Amino acid sequence: MKTAIVTDSTAYIPKEVRDQLRIHMIPLSVSFGAETYREEIDISTEQFYDKVKQHKELPTTSQPAVGEFVELFTSLRDEGYDAVISIHLSSGISGTYQGALTAGNMVDGLQVYAYDSEISCMAQGFYTIEAAKMALDGKTPEEIIARLDEVKKTLRAYFMVDDLSHLQRGGRLTGAQAFIGGLLQIKPLLHFENKVIVPFEKIRTRKKAVKRIEELFAEDAAKGVPLKAAIIHANRPDEAEQWKQELSSKYPHVEFMVSYFGPVIGTHLGEGALGLTWYQP
């Protein structure tokens, strides 16, 4: 059985990795007024953050049309694939997963398994990379999905934003009421819970927020089991790289990488967001 792996652009998997592992990507879009750009195709992350500075209004984001999924799935079937596992950002913050599900029922001669990562960014990327390696090894869709469910048990992600107003305006933050009084004074720690972004802890400074994420990471890293981790940043490459060096020297048994919050997720988190995600491979 030949299985294709599809994900959306919010996994922010570098193109060379997608090409190497034969991962097919469907893009979400950002719009500045009447101009719409498919992320990772029409606009780079650097161009996006530059554009945000030039516009007074925040951009809007949109998911792929069902027809785009149908087109991609049909072409994969025609290439000789028997099945597709389509891995997407949390259904609690986007309709992309539902779009894949709907399209899967519209394409004959192909088994489509839509998978809700219940998260986004490189955490979603971890699921996709695991799936792609297994697909290349000839594993069945059922075996791959069972492995993704295993990953879900150990995967953790925490992130902080410089300014909650982006998340509020985009309607992507649940349980924000407690924070609204002190938007400017706090750097809340956030995480995904039941598929949506919720506050985890209220923290006063960026430095303390980073330290708290480290403490949460240390709870798992101190066990000595192998972990894969990604530091994710919104236009803060130097800070992310420095943090990677510090963590790598403390935890030599952990494989660290640096990733980023691209245009669609960056629209909702705002520049300066920083996070850490990890799981047991």
Keywords for this entry:
281 residues; alpha/beta; six-stranded mixed sheet; four-stranded parallel sheet; 11 helices; 13 strands; 41% helix; globular
**Terminus-to-terminus distance:** 24 Å
- Cα-atom Rg, whole angstroms? 19 Å
- Structural class category: alpha/beta
The portion of residues assigned to helices is 40-55%
Separate helix tally: 11
Strand order of the largest sheet: 10-9-8-13-11-12
Order of helices and strands: EHEEEHEHEHEHHEHHEEHEHEHE
- Major sheet summary line: 6 strands, mixed
Low-pLDDT residue spans: none
Provide structural commentary:
This protein is of the alpha/beta class and 281 residues long. It contains 11 helices and 13 strands. Helix 3 crosses helix 4 (96-104) and helix 5 packs antiparallel against helix 6 (141-154).
